[in-house]
Hints:
Two copies of one chain form a homodimer. Chain A has two domains: 10-198 and 307-392, Alpha/Beta hydrolase fold, catalytic domain (Rossmann fold); 201-301, Orthogonal Bundle (Rna Polymerase Sigma Factor, Chain: A), CATH 1.10.1740.110. Helix content of chain A is 33%, strand content 15%. The first copy, chain A, has helices at 10-15, 142-155, 169-180, 199-214, 231-245, 248-254, 274-289, 292-304, 339-351, 375-392, and strands at residues 26-30, 36-37, 43-44, 47-54, 64-68, 94-95, 100-101, 106-110, 161-167, 185-191, 325-331, 355-361. In chain A, α2 crosses α3. In chain A, the strands form three sheets. An eight-stranded mixed sheet of chain A has the order 1-4-8-5-9-10-11-12, sandwiched between helices. Chain A has a two-stranded antiparallel sheet with strand order 2-3. Chain A is an alpha/beta fold. Mean pLDDT of chain A is 93; it is low at 1-20. Chains A and B meet through α4, α5, α6, α7 and α8 of A and α4, α5, α6, α7 and α8 of B. Chains A, B: Pfam families: Abhydrolase_1. Chains A, B: Belongs to the AB hydrolase superfamily. MetX family. Chains A, B: The active site is at residues 168, 334, 367. Chains A, B: Homodimer.
Amino acid sequence: MTAPAPIADSTLAREARNQADEPQSHVARFGRDEPLMMDCGTALAPWQLAYQTYGTLNADRTNAILVCHALTGDQHVANDHPVTGKPGWWTSFVGPGRPLDTDRFFVVCANVIGGCMGSTGPASTNPDTGAPWGLDFPLVTIRDMVRAQAMLMSRLGVEDLFCVAGGSMGGMQVLEWAALYPHRVFAAMPIAASARHSAQNIAFHEVGRQAVMADPDWRGGRYLEEGARPRKGLAVARMGAHVTYLSESALHRKFGRRFQGRDAPTFSFDADFQIESYLRHQGITFVERFDANSYLYVTRAMDYFDLADEHGGKLADAFRGTRSRFFVMSFTSDWLFPTEESRAVVRALNAAGASVSFVEVESDKGHDAFLLDEPDMFAAAKGFIDGAAAARGI
Amino acid sequence: MTAPAPIADSTLAREARNQADEPQSHVARFGRDEPLMMDCGTALAPWQLAYQTYGTLNADRTNAILVCHALTGDQHVANDHPVTGKPGWWTSFVGPGRPLDTDRFFVVCANVIGGCMGSTGPASTNPDTGAPWGLDFPLVTIRDMVRAQAMLMSRLGVEDLFCVAGGSMGGMQVLEWAALYPHRVFAAMPIAASARHSAQNIAFHEVGRQAVMADPDWRGGRYLEEGARPRKGLAVARMGAHVTYLSESALHRKFGRRFQGRDAPTFSFDADFQIESYLRHQGITFVERFDANSYLYVTRAMDYFDLADEHGGKLADAFRGTRSRFFVMSFTSDWLFPTEESRAVVRALNAAGASVSFVEVESDKGHDAFLLDEPDMFAAAKGFIDGAAAARGI
């Protein structure tokens, strides 16, 4: 199977309230007869996932890899982003000769349900009202994201995944995949992730949500209908979150206390320090590509994630009887998803008798290390993938 | 000397735009002939500091201790707060039988210049316009705060301080006191502090400032004149900052992933988790007692603080020739002002040949540990103070 041609949908395009409704990628549509059964009790229909593919599915359909994206990622893993024009978010990991080698594997990545790059989410049109869903969109969980991806993979003719891989929220999805569809996952690679969102991480997310909701242009979530956008609030949320993705040492190395374009303070509230200028830029550019309500929904999905709780309180029970092989990776300077979280996953996998390897990569780049150039990470991931491929005979 | 009676100023009270202008504490006023010479080049006059005192100055005037408050603290160290009605912020440390024993010492604490509890700041009236200063107030530095305190202490007849003590931003002031007025400081106790604000800390502060400025009710800083208050923006800033004051383990112990008043998620954006409810409460209560522009000014002062930079780039030169004795304290779980920052201060003091003791207190309470019940901290501080008092013969 090669990548299908993008499908145009003039109806959807007409109704689109923002660029997210016109995905420059493939779209899998599910009608009223194929609802997404969600944890909140809603049967969502119709719905759709926007996705990208790279490489070719082999004749045995045994070489498919699903990549799961993080909070503000999307399906554009290894192609230039249609909105920003920048390279995909994981070109270091996915491509010819990369650990997820598109010369060997058929790589799929879908925008999560609740997202804003073409998958159904709060910015999509509610078919019952003709208006954007806004806060009427049902709350999404990590498990809902995975259920949606499973239906997509079936649609693509892939019942058995060679590998599911992802970092941060993507890693949460990997763990959920292994727990929910163990028979469909040959290998699982959760990176810089955890089996439950910590109190501190919930706290940071809540601050971001409050920043969005504090913006009067959020309009109680109805900003699309009212022609507004809560840009300032979303930018503040992004700035705050961005600080948590980096380590103090990375910030010190990149910016230190250096002033922006001068040697001394201005004694004003201008962006005196380079770090201030950098953060403001991060906030401003983010709002051009991301929907504020999607930000609320996807952060909430992470907060709700607690894989042990889904299995009677015992994390090992989430993986009982699994035959998947696991490769867990963390980074020394990641204080948002610290190594201890990965160790808890590894302990549970060991208790469940699973095959698991674990690597803590020495890096000073913080949580975002999984997106950056980390040769040790590439080498370790490539070793795991190549070994798994040999075991599967591909 | 006993504490002077509070001074009423009906003119100031009339002009007051908020409760901060009517301090329920003593006020030291400095006229046009006693300007505060500020780092930004401004000679501020007239100006005032609101302050509290506890205990009695001895006949030799050798038993005065200056306590320096943190970012959102104020002069109400050991008495009930006039706005919130809650106990003072350091009753654990200051009082009869406490490490800073008010039966033995004369303890003074002043609201910093730029603050909002009665000291001159952006909410005060600009005498040239009759309107609140707003952003026309000159930018403040830690050194300016210390210069103002030094003038206050002279006004109170105290040229030599037995001790200067404080945590966080208060600890920055302690270090600045020791560097700027070494002959006036017998003992210095900086707690959970650093000699320069880190890139990560500047970043968190900038997010908070942007949250305030994103609130349309901030009105470009002119909210007092326009009868508005940027409550939502300031609440978001406080929520974000509050997360940084606690450790993940403290958050986990206090809140974990527990839901608020129920067993399961609501699948909504209500405060589902206890930590969310707690943070929202922190934000809401903070805006009742703090001025938004003061928040901008005082965070900025911390960002600008770089004691080494004030001394040609070498921190040891800030303390060269000092005869003060130092006691530096940090907390194991403080990731905002980690122990490494205190170690850098200790190394510089050692290089300068200063007398210095250092204790890293084992605590899981994060940066806020210095405000909380930490017996090891009390014991260590009391030991230092008692030893210094014996050395000074008081």
